[in-house]
Amino acid sequence: MSDSPLPPNPDEPRPDGDEPNPWADIIGPCYTTQSIARALGWTGPQVADAAASLHLLELRTEDGVLLYPQFQFWNGAVVDGLPEVLRVLRTGTESRWTWAQWLNTRLPGSDGVDEPSYIERLREGQLDYVLLEAKHDAWSWSS
After folding, report:
1. Is the pLDDT of residue 9 over 70?
2. Does the residue 2 lie in any domain?
3. Is the pLDDT assigned to residue 11 strictly greater than 70?
4. 143 pLDDT above the threshold of 70
5. Using an 8 Å Cβ cutoff, are 83 and 77 in contact?
6. Range of the domain at 113
7. What is the structure's pLDDT at 18?
8. C-alpha separations of 12 from 6, 19, 34 in Å
9. Which long-range contacts (CB under 8 A, 24 or more apart) does 20-26 make?
10. Is 124 contained in some domain?
11. What Rg value do the Cα atoms of the chain yield, rounded?
């Protein structure tokens, strides 16, 4: 055991033998129900209602913890267009973890440079483009 004040390397196996969870890198930081309610000035039931109506992306962990990826918020609010995109993605799969990965992953472009993620495109106001891509991918998921 080291005397270093630094936390362990997240890419190394944990002392309990569990491998690091790759979803942490894919999804990034998340809020809990209480922390997002506080940040948005909402109540817990308002957060639950927003998640149920797909105004927020809510992820449930294997142990039942509800998380809200930070990437879906911009300038103190939910990214414009996100609810519409979530409703389209739901037509292809019910897996909210798949939706989160789809939204927050950058893919290499034809020139080898990573394209902006879909959530970045939403922040830039490219709702029509993101909806078109969401419809295409949701269709392929459901085939």
Report:
1. no
2. no
3. no
4. yes
5. no
6. 27-142
7. 63
8. 14, 7, 30
9. 23/97, 26/100, 26/101, 26/104, 26/105
10. yes
11. 17
